[in-house]
Design a protein that fits this description.
2 copies of one chain form a homodimer. Chain A is of the alpha+beta class. In chain A, 42% of the residues lie in helices and 18% in strands. In chain A, the strands form 4 sheets. Chain A has a 7-stranded mixed sheet with strand order 2-3-4-13-5-8-9, with helices on both faces.
Chain lengths: 340, 340
């Protein structure tokens, strides 16, 4: 089934509304998930809805969070999210970072105790659309091998960067693993072989057999593992909600889903007029695209493929694979939401 | 030859002093280079001295820079470095970022028009030693293939992150390439084969033959290329000193060596007491080190190997390979500096 983004978003909003959350929050979550689908990041789209609803039921996602933003400095905010859904907390954090950046040139909001942040690039691209540069991190529990270890030690913690461009933001959203858990699951279903040095099996041995692959390996070995570890330090440890150690030590807190995040905004206009910045970004893009390509490859900017897919899917609608569609219909039915 | 760090630093300082720079600047450059040697990052150590001196002669490195720090906000500074040596500009930038962070919670200093920044981790680790978290970038001219291209499009732009730890900073300093230019050169000398997907030859074809390898490939393909591109955007384009486009377009400015950088400091104590942060960092380190290791591997924290090498080299001295030693002695002699 192909479905128009607006229709999908309205439907998913109604599902979240049924969990008892405010309409604004339901809209925010549905908006972040459908944005990912629009851009072709289907692993971070509406496929996540059933899990989000599970977290509501288990109490790990708070539908009526008492979020508290605390700031005792001109450029920093700590947002205690009280288990608010990731998109609710991170969208608010992005706004707070931008507000601080307007006053101080740079603004940072650290987010404590939220849930799955959805596609991190959603927040950095929003900031770039406002004419600012953005950096964001997200930390979660261990799901990736630490370099040199046979077991999960860190998460595939993403780093996102974005700046304004001529035709949409120049925007990178990269996980610290060689391959995502979503892609491992996809390979498991399709039965295709994995490249070497991508994943470990349950015993911690490198494998190319997708059926037994369990843990992604960190990008560049020590680099990706180090990046993931530093992201935990710069978010979870600073906000006093450690995620990795709790799970690795097997504490009760470690059995609950939780994430922390950080959003930094930089007011480019403090340094250079925005049209000049955009002009230079366009000039750089043109120079890169003029390079001789590898056979059969196209030279793309970070985020460009997503902009294109979004343009296409705004016309064609978002394709929902049958199993996802069925799961969502069943969930909606069970929650008393009319069919899409 | 093995030489004590202090003696090497004093000698290298005298070489830089002869170029006409202030004693303080000569000390700063020598200090940054010898720090890299101490930690085993020999590619960013005193091996760079002859090149730095060449840049003085060509006018690309200004020995008497009129650095100007401009700030019209509580958290940001633009440091126009006037072609000051990288370590001079970046050390000053780190101090300015820390000063702003003390007042505003987070502080950023963008650096315009400096030269080779030396080991970027030097600045972030200094900030971590002051009890703050740090992020730094550096941008330089194209020396790495852009993803999908058969030619250099971006630089192996490094990203460095550091936080205070119990036994020295937890500190990552990663280039955005699969392999450094230094390692390519080393493989060329030793004749060893390269792994696949590491480098391109002069025609832009992938090669495992170190003798013809010219360009490193970006880490993780689109990820490393995107990171390098975003670092150029977030430094060079914001400070109005574009590096990549000038070279790619073959302009006169593109023929001059130049770098730009950024240093961000975050005052951890605004969010959490430092002893508690350090305690959590230690706890996390312990949990990671307790993971089952891969056969023959040791589980290390980012920066840990460097801390160890430094402890050893403080006792044994810094090993200088004969060709490096000879080149430095000849340079010192030619500049009228007494032998080490």
């Amino acid at each position: 089934m192909n479905v128009a983004a607006e229709r999908l978003q309205a439907w998913i909003s109604r599902v979240f509304l049924k969990t008892g959350m405010a309409d604004e929050h339901a809209q925010t979550i549905a908006g972040a998930l459908v944005w990912a689908n629009l851009r072709g990041i289907d692993t971070h789209g509406v496929v996540r809805v059933p899990r989000y609803v599970e977290w509501v039921r288990s109490g790990e996602l708070n539908t009526r969070p008492a979020m508290r933003a605390r700031s005792d400095s001109s450029a920093c905010v700590l947002l205690d999210a009280d288990r608010a859904a990731g998109p609710v907390a991170m969208s608010h954090a992005a706004s707070l970072a931008v507000e601080k950046a307007r006053g101080a040139g740079i603004g940072m909001c650290l987010v404590r105790m939220t849930t799955h942040t959805a596609a991190l690039g959603y927040y950095t691209q929003r900031i770039a659309h406002l004419g600012m540069a953005a950096i964001a991190f997200a930390a979660s529990g261990p799901n990736m091998a630490y370099h040199g270890a046979r077991a999960a030690g860190v998460s595939t913690a993403p780093l996102a960067l974005a700046v304004p461009g001529e035709d949409g933001p120049i925007a990178l959203d990269m996980a610290s693993g060689v391959v995502s858990l979503g892609k491992l699951a996809q390979a498991r279903r399709s039965g295709e072989a994995l490249p070497p040095d991508v994943a470990l099996d349950a015993q911690g041995k490198p494998t190319t057999d997708a059926r037994v692959a369990r843990l992604p390996l960190p990008l560049g070995g020590a680099k990706g593992a180090g990046l993931a570890l530093l992201i935990e330090c710069m978010t979870s440890l600073i906000v006093g909600n450690p995620l990795l150690a709790e799970v690795l030590e097997g504490t009760p807190a470690g059995r609950k889903h939780s994430q922390n995040g950080a959003v930094i905004a930089v007011d480019i206009e403090r340094f250079i007029e925005l049209p000049r910045f955009r002009g230079e970004a366009t000039r750089l893009a043109r120079a890169l695209k003029a390079l001789p390509p590898q056979p059969g490859m196209e030279i793309l900017l970070p985020g460009e493929r997503g902009h294109r897919v979004a343009a296409q899917r705004r016309v064609d609608g978002i394709p929902l694979p049958a199993p996802v569609e069925e799961e969502l219909r069943a969930l909606a039915r069970a929650m008393g939401v009319e069919d899409i």
